[in-house]
Amino acid sequence: MTIEMKNTTAAKVAKALLDWHRERGSSGSGMVHTFVVATDRDDFDEAYQAALAANREHPSRILIVVRDPGAEDGLDAEIHTDSDARGDMMVLTMRGRTVEHPGSVLRPLLVPDLPVVVWWPNEAPEDLLTDRIGKLADRRITDALGAEDPTQAIIDRAYYHSPGDSDLAWTRTTRWRALLAAALDQVKAPVTAATVEAATDNAPASLLAAWLELKLGVEVTVSRTDGPGITAVRMTTPSGPIEIVRIGPDETVYRVPDQPERSVALRRRPVAELVTEELRRMDDDVVLADVLAEMVRQNGQCALDLSGHPGNLQHPVQPSA
């Protein structure tokens, strides 16, 4: 069943959750973090299902925050006692001016002494660390591909990166990077040029190209194709070309010099699988931080003075002259 609470308060929701645990004789222990999903009505269903799927590997208290700033002020809550969640599942609809004060709603509902992870499945605030919800979190996950302008979204992530921030655009490159690293281990010759082929405005392709430039020290070209997503990476070496080419939804060709061509699995992964991967780590992704810093260098110096930003002490971006 679902416990529905209209025009309620965070304190009443917390008490209702505690009463429900007592009724069924459970303490609510065994959870590893609080998982806050900040979404809207249009993307609610996909975000709900992805959070539930990730919860199977990472038991947690899930707080799905639905923002409805155009409605009358107030808070509605649902405690989903019949969900498949390994932990607690709540939907919190913040209406009107309540949207401007999410911290007062969320703080009483966080699991004490456990990390807090926030995920924005679509549009995310420019600066995650100073956002009203983001400042509650130890880990902040965004998805540039859910934004209206994915390229600008990933540039924003680069300029405002703080320890604990990550983006699913980077997670989408995990298997590409693993295959490329394996290929480079087999070919000892230096790479003299490289190309990433991808659909237009593809944020993972921009990140992959920046990573290759950082690791190889060569200029990497991004070539546009019909997609979907990243379709190929080609590298030139004195020993011959290294090529990883996706030729179908479930088939990718892997070519390295002096070895037979072979097929590898490199399917496009669903969002739920990407979120599950991201939740496996609570520490800062220093490789991503370095890649984002490389993107800032590629796009010119940031016009904003972020030197005093609390999250940019490790990888500061100086203002332009």
From TrEMBL:
All copies of the Glucose-6-phosphate dehydrogenase assembly protein OpcA N-terminal domain together span: 53-157
InterPro entries hit by this protein: G6PDH_assembly_OpcA, OpcA_G6PD_C, OpcA_G6PD_N
UniProt superkingdom: Bacteria
Q: Which residues form the Glucose-6-phosphate dehydrogenase assembly protein OpcA C-terminal domain?
A: 163-292
Q: From the Swiss-Prot or TrEMBL record, give the protein name.
A: Glucose-6-phosphate dehydrogenase assembly protein OpcA
